[in-house]
Design a protein that fits this description.
mainly beta, Maltose phosphorylase, domain 3, six-stranded antiparallel beta sheet, 1 helix
């Protein structure tokens, strides 16, 4: 039964290792048409907690996106949010507006350990 759980953590919540032992992680949620999703992904360094909320426009694309996450001690990460909601790569990270690096259909920002809130627009 671990296979469905693996799909949820890797794709829906978007948590994947970028370095050995989860020293760095990628958080790239892909909630599709779900308006909310969340969970904790166990890692050797502690759980990565992820909560996603989005508002979908009439075309089914996100017009607003929020990502709350907590990275355990000793873990850094790259969080990537869908561009339709983050026009021009603009992301608010912990209350501060930044322009994330655009990678494909995502705006990506670098994060350190601890709790973070990211929103678009």
């Amino acid at each position: 039964m671990a296979f469905p759980l693996s799909l949820i953590t890797r794709w829906l919540l978007g948590v994947r290792p970028l370095a050995a032992g989860y020293a760095r992680v990628l958080i790239q949620p892909q909630p599709g048409t779900l308006t909310r999703a969340g969970g904790a992904v166990p890692t050797p360094r502690g759980p990565v907690a992820v909560a996603v909320a989005q508002v979908l426009g009439p075309n089914g694309l996100p017009t607003a996106f929020a990502l709350n996450l907590t990275l355990p001690g000793g873990v850094g990460g790259t969080a990537c949010l869908a561009l339709p909601a983050c026009a021009g790569g603009r992301v608010v990270v912990d209350g501060v507006g930044v322009v994330g690096a655009v990678s494909g259909d995502y705006a990506c920002v670098q994060l350190g350990e601890g709790a973070h809130k990211l929103t678009c627009p």
